[in-house]
Amino acid sequence: MSKISQVKETIILNLKKVIEEEFGKEIITDLDFKLEIPPEIKMGDLGWACFKLGEKIKKNPEDVAKILSAKVKINELIEKVVAFGPYLNFFFNKEKFFSLVLNEILEEKENYASSKIGEGKTVIIEFSSPNTNKPQHLGILRNNLLGMSLANLFKNFGYKVIRANLINDRGIHITKSMLAYQKWGEGKTPETEKMKGDYFVGKFYTLFGEKVKENPHLLDEAHEMLRKWEEGNQEVWQLWQKMNSWAIDGFKETYRKLGIEFDKWYYESEIYKLGKEIVLKALENNLCYKREDGAIEIDLTNYNLGKKVLIRADGTSIYITQDIGLAKLKYDEFKPDLSIYVVGSEQENYFKVLFKILEIFGFDWVKNCYHLSYGLVFLPAGRMKSREGKVVEIDDLLSEVKKIAKGEILKREKDILPSELEERAEKIALASLKFFFLKFSPSENINYDPEKEISFEGATGPYLLYTYARIKGIFKKSKILSLKFKTIDYSMLKEQEEIELLRLLFDFPEVLEKSIFFYNPSYLANYLLKLGQTFNTFYHRYPVLKNPKKIKEARLALIEAIGQVLKKGLNLLGIETLERM
RNA sequence: GUCCCCAUAGUUUAAUGGAGAAAACGUUGGCCUCCGGAGCCAAAGAAUGCAGGUUCGAUUCCUGCUGGGGACACCA
C-alpha cells in the first residue's frame, strides 16, 4: 500500500478507536468513514463529517466534533485536529505533507496512483461494435473513447482487460449497401475512386436510401439478397466478403488514427447462429414457449418488459438470439468478473430484456454484466441519420481539426519541420476531440456543433497539452536533467497556490478510483482541468527558476510531480502529451 | 398508451444528501523588459424548469406537473 493511502488508513483507524472508546463498539458499523478534502485551505487538509454519528448518539454534530477533536491523537504528520462546525478537520504539518506526497510521486513516477486491487480479476469491455455498411460517425467516436479510457483505467488498477469489438457485418442493412453496389457500382473499388473503404461502402448505403424512395420494391430485393446470403449463395457471398473487407480496412485505419486497439474481434456473421441451442434447451425446460405460428417467445410482462420473440417461426435467429449466445461465449472463454457493454442509451430497454432473459435461463453470471449507457450526440440539425447522410464522420472531423491545429502552430512557429508539424498537429487535434467528448458525463446527451466546438482554448485538451509543455519548458531552461529529490527542503513550499496544488496531487488516486467506480472518465477529465488551472495560476504568480537554490529545487519538484500526474491522467484518457507545442 | 433519461449564469457543462452553487465559452476592463499570451488577473452574469414532500441539511431522494430526448420489432 502506498504511503499516501496509509495516511488516510491511519487517521481512520485512529478515529474509529476514539469513537469506540467514547461511544461504544456497535456504533462503528453504521458509519461511513470517508475523509474528504475541505473546500478551503484554512479549514484543514482532511475532514470527516460528524452528522451521522451525531444522529446515532442523539447529539449535536458540532458537539460531537468538539468531543472528538479533543480525543484524537496528533502525530508528526498531523499537527492539529480541530472541530470546524460539524466537521472534524485534520491539519497536516505542511513540510511533512509535501515531502510525503511529492516523494511518492517522484519515486513511483507513472506508477503513482496505480494499484493492484484488481489483480486476478478479468474485465471484458465490449465497445465500438460498428456496422460494416458505413463509416464511423461521432456517436461511435464517443463510444470508442469511453471504451478505451475505461480499459486504461481498469488496467491501471491491475485488472486483466479484454477489449472486445463485435463487428455487425450481417443483416438487412448490409445487403442494402450490397444491392446498391451491385446495381450502380459499375465495378468501381475504393482503389479506383481513391476513397477510404468504409466511406466507399457508405456511399452505396446512402444511395440505397435515395433510390428506395422512388422504388420501394428495392427493399424486397435486399431481403431476397439476405436470404441468399444465409443460404450461402456463392455470388452474394463473394460480394459480401469484398465489401466487408473494404469497410473493415477503413475501420482499422480509423482505429489506428485514434490509437485504439482490441484484444478480441467477434464477427456477427460467425456467431449469429449461436444462442439457438440455448433457446431450444430453455424451451425444453419450459422457460419460454412455442407460439401457435411456430415462433419461440418469452413472456417478460411480469417484469414490465413485454414479450420477446427469440427464434422466428421459420427457425432463423434474430439479433438477441446471437447476443444470448455471445454472452455465454464470452463467459466460457474469459470467465470475466465484470462484463461491460458500452452501448448508447437508446438500447437501455434492449439490455434490460437481454439480461432478464439470461437470468431466467439460469446464467447466474449475468449479475456481472453491466450496460454502460451513454447519451446521444446531436448535431445542430438534430439527431444523426446515416440513411440520410446527415452525419459527421470521424475521419473528416479529425482531418479538419488537424488542419486548424496546423494553422495555429504555424502562427507561433514559422520554420517548423514538416514532419514535426504533422506530428504535433495530429496530437493536438486528437487531444481536442478526445477531451471534448470525455469531459461530459456518459449519461448526458451531447450537442456538437462542429463550427463552434473546435477550440483549443479554455477547458480543452490542447490547454492541458500546453500546460504540460510549459512545465517541460521550464525544465529545459533549468538545465537540470534529474532532480535529486531526496535532498529537497520542502519547508520552502508554503504559498497558498502550492498547497492547493499539493492537495490536488494528493487527491489524484481517489479521483481515479471514483472514475472507475462510476464508469465515468469525466471525473478524471474535470480533475485534470482543475489541476491545470491551478498550476497556471501558480505559474503566473511565482517564478520557479529565478529563486535561491533551495526554493528553486523545491518548486521544480512540485512542478515535476504535476507534470507526471498530468501526463498519466491524459494518457488514461487516451491522450498523448507533447514536449513542445 | 406504458417505461426510461434529461432540465443548473446568455451558451455548453460541473458539483459520493453536507462546508458562501464551480468552471469554460461569450461580454467588459487589465497583464508580454519577467520560466511559452494555446496563458493569467478582475468585473458583470443563477431564488438550480414549476408545485409540494422527506431530512438537522436537497442541484442531488420521493410525488405530481410542464418542456425536451429516447425506448417499447419475427430491425440490427
Q: Kindly state the number of beta strands.
A: 14
Rg of Cα set: 29 Å
Q: Based on the structure given, which CATH architecture of the domain at 424-572 is correct?
A: Orthogonal Bundle
Largest sheet: 5 strands, parallel
Shape field: flat
Backbone structural class: alpha/beta
Query: What distance lies between the first and last C-alpha atoms, to the nearest angstrom?
Result: 37 Å
Side-by-side strand order of the widest sheet = 6-5-4-10-11
- Tell me roughly what share of residues is in helical segments: 40-55%
Low-confidence stretches: none
Count of separate DSSP helical elements: 21
CATH-wise, what's the superfamily of the domain at 424-572?
Answer: Isoleucyl-tRNA Synthetase, Domain 1
Classify the beta-strand content into a percent band: 5-15%
Structure description:
Strands 6-5-4-10-11 form a five-stranded parallel β-sheet, sandwiched between helices. Strands 1-3-2 form a three-stranded antiparallel β-sheet. A three-stranded antiparallel β-sheet has the order 7-8-9. Among the domains are: 3-92, Gyrase A, domain 2 (2-Layer Sandwich), CATH 3.30.1360; 424-572, Isoleucyl-tRNA Synthetase, Domain 1, CATH 1.10.730.10. The chain has helices at 3-23, 51-56, 61-71, 94-108, 138-156, 172-184, 190-193, 197-214, 217-231, 234-258, 268-271, 276-284, 319-334, 348-360, 394-412, 418-438, 450-453, 461-478, 496-517, 522-541, 549-572, and strands at residues 46-49, 78-84, 87-92, 122-126, 160-167, 264-267, 289-290, 296-299, 307-311, 338-344, 369-374, 377-379, 382-383, 446-447. The chain starts with a helix and ends in a 9-residue tail after the last helix. The protein is α/β, with parallel strands linked by helices and 581 residues long. The model has no long low-confidence stretch (mean pLDDT 92). 55% of the residues lie in helices and 11% in strands. The structure holds one RNA strand of 76 nucleotides.
